[in-house]
Amino acid sequence: MGKSVSSHQQGLGWLADWPVLKSALDCEARAMVVLLSSGKTRDMNGTTPDAWLMRALTEALAVHGVVCINPRLPLREDGLTNTDEALIALRTDLASKALLEEHTRPVAVLAISLGTQSALALAARRHTASRIDALFLLSGVIENPVAPVGRIRSVDLIYGGRDHVGYLGHGEETLRDIEGPREYGPRSRNNLVTGPSTLSALHILAGAGHGLETAGSIGPNHREAVALLLPLVLHRLGLATPPDSKARKTEEIRS
C-alpha cells in the first residue's frame, strides 16, 4: 500500500509507491492494453471483482500476444488528495505516465468504473489521445458530453445487466430515479461526441454486476465477461475478425 502524502508534498520519491504492473509474454507483443481500475481497487492484485476481471483478461490476452500494463492507482482512503476531482486528476496523471511509454504498437485503454473518468480524460488530451486506438469503458456512466480526440477509432461502453444506479435529488438523502443500463447506457453513449471515423457501441452483459461478474461458487465468475471482451478487444486492435455477438448473452447497440 502506498504511503499517504498530501498533494502539496508530492515529489519524485512518492512515485515509487505506485508502480506499473506489466504482464509477461512468451513472444513479442503485438499490441498493448492499459488497464485502469475502479475506485475500490488499486491494481489487479486486489480481491475486488474488477481485480479478478483484470487478471482473467490479462491471462486471456497474453495467449494472443497482447501485453497488459496496469498502473497502481490510489484510492480515497490513501489520503493523497482532498477531493474526488483531485483524486481523478492524480489517477489520470499516473495512467498517462504509463501510457506514454508506448510508441509503436496498437494501444487500447480498458477502464472500470471510476477508472473510466481517467480514460475519458486521457482521450480528451491530445498528447495522450494520440497514443490510443480504442477505448473500453466498463461500468462508467457518462453524465456530461465528452469529445475523444486523436487517433481513437472506437469507443465501447460495456455494462452489467444487474448494475443499477440511484440518484439523489438536490438536498435529498433518499435515493430516487434508480436506473439500469438500458436507461443510463444510451444516455452515456449520446454524451460521447465522436466524429464519423470513430465507431461507438453499447454492450449490456445479461446477468452481470458492476464488475461484470456473475455468481460463482468460489469468488466472482468472469467467464461471460471475458468471452465478450477478449474477441472485442482483439478485433478493435486489428488482431482478429469481428466477434459473433449471437454467441454471447449480450445486447449490442451500435451507432
Describe this structure in words.
The chain is α/β, with parallel strands linked by helices and 255 residues long. It has one domain (21-254): Rossmann fold. Helix content is 27%, strand content 20%. It contains six helices and ten strands. The protein has helices spanning 49-62, 84-99, 115-124, 126-129, 181-190, 223-236, and strands at residues 20-22, 31-36, 66-71, 107-112, 134-138, 154-160, 165-167, 176-179, 199-205, 250-254. The strands form two sheets. An eight-stranded mixed β-sheet has the order 1-3-2-4-5-6-9-10, with helices on both faces. A two-stranded antiparallel sheet has the order 7-8. A hairpin with an 8-residue loop joins strand 7 and strand 8. Helix 2 (84-99) packs across helix 3 (115-124). It starts with 19 loop residues before the first strand and ends with a strand. Residues 1-14 have low confidence and may be disordered. It comes from Mesorhizobium onobrychidis. InterPro entries: AB_hydrolase_fold.
